[in-house]
Design brief:
The protein folds into 2 domains: 35-67 and 291-510, Immunoglobulin-like (Sandwich), CATH 2.60.40.420; 70-98 and 141-280, Immunoglobulin-like, CATH 2.60.40. 11% of the residues lie in helices and 31% in strands. The longest helix is centred in the last third of the chain and has 14 residues, at 475-488. The chain is built from 9 helices and 25 strands. The protein is mainly beta and 511 residues long.
């Protein structure tokens, strides 16, 4: 969200010890974009543990009535928080619920049979027990994450034929991209209204909607036929070259919502009411962005001029150093270091890319459907086949996609040039983004990979926004905060709450 990165707002540095508390205050500016946002714990080193433990909640900035299309106002408006649990024998260790909570996925821990004292501090013992019962949850394949929607397994959504409902999807899954589709032959359509809380110019029809961890998608769904169908996740191999191998940071294919479609209610029945015609159509245009989110692309006749000092290369780096190591620009996160500084009200241009420095990275393991079993076994053993999508996320701002490499997303399945996001999946190639830091952003901004196990391992940077007119860089708020903490006798770290409802929670990330 567009709130300050300091003090008691979107400040991910302070932490709340178990048993402690911290109050967060968010002043929502009058022209803030209306949209779908969320919050979750952000204690460095424990993000994967806490997100796998389903610690997340939704935050909605409601639409202003004057800007709100009647067609959207008429729709049922439903929040859909996607979370996932893998309980045992998991294909990927970072998805395993017990190991995630105990923080066993830690790369440093796996390299030693005798973890040092610092590592022991990040291990949380559990006594998780899997109890089999008659519940209708298919745990026959426990090696892959099972998706829950608002904490429910396979909930039912009732629709009338031709009726549109607005579904606000939030991917709160710790480590996996969600690829949403409707079941084949369902006659159901998905129209994307907004991504990451920013409306498109008009609704955009999609056969598959790709939502990275931390991403959001506002979707209008409509089914044209009576029957029972499904909304599903679909990790098709046809998208391997966009997102990486199936089951490698991708939610496995499975139904997640049952769609029960019935006939339109009979208007002659006094006990029933006719569906309004407004339910049956989409708006021709959607609410506009606020003026401070100015277009960064310009026109062929008038391109924006960006100073060289306002250009930055941000590379997700993977290399070997006593094991697989994750970082940015070939360095792991150092919270004592500021990697880049940018002035307010000057347009920034960043190049976001991914590079695997491991020797095996010269191999290409993006196998097609006709690959032989031998090829697949060899690929599975190749460390390069762990090459994966890295969702880029920056706090306190959105950014506009200004350019991309041809191989990044040639068919526009994931995103298009001109779209505004705050979380962007990048697998191969690179993406250029532009944005203008504003006064509310003064302070240290967190930019990171939104794969939780990667950010815990150091795939993040701190960048600073400063106001050259006032000489402020956000340190004043930090000093006041430290002083207040000293006076109160409170210590900063870790999380204490285990509910998703409270707004006074541990180290919360808001966007």
């Amino acid at each position: 969200m567009h709130v300050p990165p300091v003090g008691d707002a979107d400040n991910v540095m302070p932490n709340v010890e178990p048993g402690g508390q911290r109050r967060y205050t968010y002043e929502i500016r009058p022209d803030h974009p209306a949209g779908t946002f969320w919050y979750h714990p952000h204690t460095h080193g424990n993000v994967n543990s806490q997100l796998n433990g389903m610690m997340a909640g939704a935050l909605i900035v409601v639409d202003r009535p004057a800007d709100f299309p009647a067609e959207l106002a008429a729709m049922d408006d439903l929040i859909m928080i996607l979370q996932a649990v893998c309980v045992e024998n998991c294909f990927n260790m970072y998805d395993d619920l017990e190991e995630a909570i105990e923080n066993k996925y830690s790369h440093s821990r796996r390299l030693s049979d005798t973890p040092d004292e610092d590592e022991e501090e990040h291990i949380w013992p559990t006594d998780l027990e899997i109890v089999e019962d008659d519940a209708d949850i298919p745990l026959n394949d426990t090696s892959l994450p099972t998706v829950f929607v608002n904490g429910q397994y396979l909930p039912t959504l009732d629709l009338a034929v031709g009726e549109y409902k607005r579904l606000r999807f939030i991917n709160a899954i710790a480590n996996n991209v969600a690829e949403l589709v409707t079941s084949r032959g369902s006659g159901c359509m998905l129209e994307v209204l907004a991504m990451d809380g920013i409306y498109f110019t008009k609704p955009k029809a999609k056969e598959v909607i790709v939502i990275p961890p931390g991403g959001r998608a506002d979707v209008a769904i409509m089914c044209a036929e009576i029957g029972e169908f499904y909304l599903e996740t679909d990790s098709a191999s046809s998208r391997n070259k966009l997102l990486g191998l199936v089951n490698q940071h991708r939610v496995p294919s499975q139904p997640i919502v049952k769609l029960k479609v019935t006939k339109v209610e009979d208007p002659d029945d006094e006990d029933e009411s006719e569906i309004s015609a407004e339910f049956m159509r989409l708006p021709s245009s959607l609410p506009k962005r606020p003026a401070y989110m100015e277009d960064t692309l310009g026109t062929p006749q008038s391109r924006p001029i960006i100073e060289e000092s306002n250009k930055y290369d941000f590379e997700f780096s993977v290399w070997m150093d006593k094991g697989i190591t994750y970082g940015v620009n070939h360095e792991k996160l150092d919270i004592a270091s500021i990697n880049y500084s940018m002035p307010v009200n000057e347009m920034q241009q960043w190049e976001i890319s991914v590079k695997d420095y491991r020797k095996a990275a010269i191999w290409d393991c993006d196998l097609e459907d006709d690959s032989t079993s031998v090829e697949r076994r060899l690929a599975k053993k190749s460390s390069n086949c762990r090459t994966m999508s890295h969702p880029f996320h920056m706090h306190s701002t959105h950014f506009q996609i200004s350019d991309m490499d041809d191989i990044t997303d040639p068919d526009g399945i994931m995103f298009d040039v001109g779209e505004w996001r705050d979380t962007l999946p990048i697998f191969r190639g690179g993406v250029q983004i532009r944005f203008t830091p504003r006064e509310y952003m003064v302070g240290n901004i967190f930019a990171h990979c939104h794969i939780a196990s990667h950010v815990d391992a150091g795939m993040a940077q701190l960048v600073n926004v400063y106001d050259s007119d006032t000489r402020s860089n956000g340190d004043e708020a930090s000093e006041e905060e430290d002083s207040a903490s000293d006076e109160d006798g409170d210590e900063d770290e870790s999380d204490s709450s285990d509910t998703e409802d409270t707004k006074e929670v541990q180290n919360v990330e808001k966007r």
